[in-house]
Every structure is written in C-alpha cells, then in structure tokens.
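Example record

The entry below shows one chain as it appears in the dataset: sequence first, then structure tokens.
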Amino acid sequence: MPYERKVIDIQEIRRQQAICAEIFDRVTADGRRPLAMVDTYGCQQNEADSEKLRGYLAEMGYSFTQDEFQADVIVVNTCAVREHAEMRVLGNVGALNHTKKNKPDQIIAVCGCMVQQEHMAQKIKMSYPVVDLVFGPHELWRFPELLQRVMTRGKRVFATEKDNGAVAEGIPQRRDGSVKAWLSIMYGCNNFCTYCVVPYVRGRERSRRPEDVVAEARELVAAGYKDITLLGQNVNSYGKDLDSGVDFADLIRMVNDIPGDFLIRFMTSHPKDATEKLFKTMAECEKCAHHIHLPVQAGSDRVLKAMNRSYSRAKYLEEVALARQYMPDLVLTTDIIVGFPGETEEDFAETLSLCEEVRFDAMFTFIYSKRVGTPAASMPDPYTRADKQRHFDQLMEVANRISGEKHREYEGRTLRVLVDGETGKPAYNLSSRTNGGRLVHLKGDPALVGQFVDVTITASNTWALYGELAEKQ
C-alpha cells in the first residue's frame, strides 16, 4: 500500500509559536532569561533537527549554555544507528541525576531516533526517572506543546507513537555558525537495508516542495552563508512523492541559479538511485561541489544482497567511472560496514579489493552493530568480535594509506578554499575546506572566516592538508 504524504498545516505551527509566547511569559516572569542546552548525537539530519529545537527554545525566551548544571531545560537529541551512540546517550542521561539534584526544577527531555524505538522508550521510562519528556522525530514540530504539558501538569510526557512522518514548514531555526548551513530537503527512508533502523524511526520518504527548499536557500544566501548542504537520508530519491516533476538534479539546478557566491553540497546518496543526470548536473552547475558521498557498505555481491542494497559491485563501479568521467576532479567518499552477519574472509577480501580499485578519498568505517527489529539482527553470525576487529584494522590501514597518498597529490597545488573557522592553534589558526570537502589548515587573519581564498598546499597527512595563502598576482 503506497504511503500517503502528510503535511502539517501551517496553522498548527502558528499554534506552537503561540504556545512559545505563553512559555516565554511564564519563564521570564521574574525578569531573568532562563538557559537551555541542546546536546546532539548522530548525523547531520539530527544537527538540523537541533537547530529547530533551538529555534523554538529561543522563541520561548531561553538563552543557551553548554553547562548542564546551569541549564533550566536540557534536550538530548539522540541517534539510533549504532549501539555505541545509544550507550553514550544513556550514560550521559544517567549522569544528569547530579544536575537535577543541584537544580530540582530542571526539565530534561530526550528526543530523536533512539527513543522512537519502543524498547528504548520503555527503558527510559522504567530506568531513567530523571527524564521528564520523551518524543520521537515525528513529534518535533509540536515540541512547545509537549514542553508546556510537562511544565503545567508536573508529570512525565512520552510521545513516541509509531508514525510514517510528515512535512512541517515554518518551524523557527537557530543555526550554529554563520558560514555553513544544513538545509533539509526531505525526510525518512524507503530502502529498508537489513541492518538499518532508520526507516523504522524516521518514517517513509517525504520531500519538501521545491519552492520551499529554494526559498530557504535564498534566505541562507542572503544571510551570508557560503556552504549549503542539502540533506536527506537518500537525496537521490527527492521528489518521487511529489507531483512537481522536479527530481534531485533539477533541484540542484534551481539552487544553483540563486545569485551569489556559495557552494552546494549534499548528503547522502544511495547508489541505486545515482544517475547520469545527477553527475552531469553536478559537472554543469558551477556552484555544486565536486564531492559525492556514495556509501558502498561492502564489496561482495553476496553481502550486498543480504544487506538489501539493490545494486551489485559491478553497478557501483560503473557509477564511479561515470561520475569521474563527468568530473575528473571528483572527491569520492563512502561508508563501509565490517563484520555484517556471515561475512566471510572471501567477502571481506572483495571489500578490500574494491577499495583498492576505487581509491576513495576518505572512508567512514564501522563494525556492524545489531539493531533490534531489523532483519539482520536475526541472521546467523558465526564470526567473533575479534575476527571483525581484525578486518576493521585491515580496512583502516588501507583507508589511511590511500587517503595519505591522495592528499600528497595536492602538495604544490593552489586551490580555492572556503575559510570556515578558527582552530585555536597558533601554527595553523584557520580551518578551511576545498570544493571537494578536503580539510585545509592554514595561517591567516581571522577576518578571513567566511571568505573564499586561494591557498597553496605545502604539506599533508592522512587526515588533512596544510597550506599558506597564495600570493596575489
């Protein structure tokens, strides 16, 4: 049965903002501006969600702190992709017992993907009484209403009902920084890779209307943002649930047409939906970065099929070759899972050989993490953690060697980079990124932050490039 796209009426968002005003009057009645802390785990989409949480909190009258002992409201925005992230969250939430003893009226909320899982919501309900409010990603749009309920009733609130999700426009945002911005273009995922919990916690794919995306992009450019990342669990599927006739490549062209000097990036692409049209568009749009994050996950067809990835090794290699044909300077990064249930020595050897053949600029590598409720969680897995760690270490050696070799190829070249921040280190006090997203450390005036400059690369290592400002001709 096809999923029916759901949109939250703008009047509902305005009602939430009216509640923000009510909370503002309540929490500032004594003339003091209360403090809030938003602690974020996980992916860029979680970062974008936290910007909305901070947007609501700012309208409620809160200023912000990173000191949990000073905060009147703490919101922990969680990730469910790997067990390690969940354990970190639970450990840190447990430690908030100390802050609440010090500040009994403190409100602690836990939201995001982790608590959308029924067993994790139940765990928090039974074992973490310090938590006052729990809500999943689908309820973020009504955060003010949920927080007000805690404030007025003095009882714990849990809002984690199963839902396919909706699109909500008009939520206020408070962004981190002034150079780089996240811009969500869609939510959810339809792919159901057998190891992944995301479709169960984020819901079905639903795209924002292209005119809404472009309008937000215009606002970002007007505000001076220079590095705009289009976000989705699978951006290549953008528009399939709309009747607009606009696909992801078309959307890139629409954003590219906005006047101004800025870069367009995007995360994340699924190989099954990466098309020649996308690669051609990236090559033709002068503002689109020549970088694509294309998670392969494994180099073995047998493992890819067990993962339900819907492409073969050969298909992936064909896409890489085609993308590089259109963009010879393409920076290609990927994700790889080591130790998927039943992965053999032969399967892993195929992953290593694929990495040697493709020569990724960077690889984000993970040991398989069992996720409750996913098909892979019940697959037989005769291999030990020690076997998987050995494979992981081998893969890291290959990844680091190739990255170091590719970085050395930059030495002596002059590149245009965007200076995006300060490092706090005197030798190289500024950080920047190339068009392809490679990190470049350099020395210069902090006033350069937010500007494009030319840098001559003088040195490199596995993780970064080092350079100096190029002399003006």
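Notes for this example: The chain has 15 helices and 21 strands. The first strand starts at residue 7 and ends at 8.
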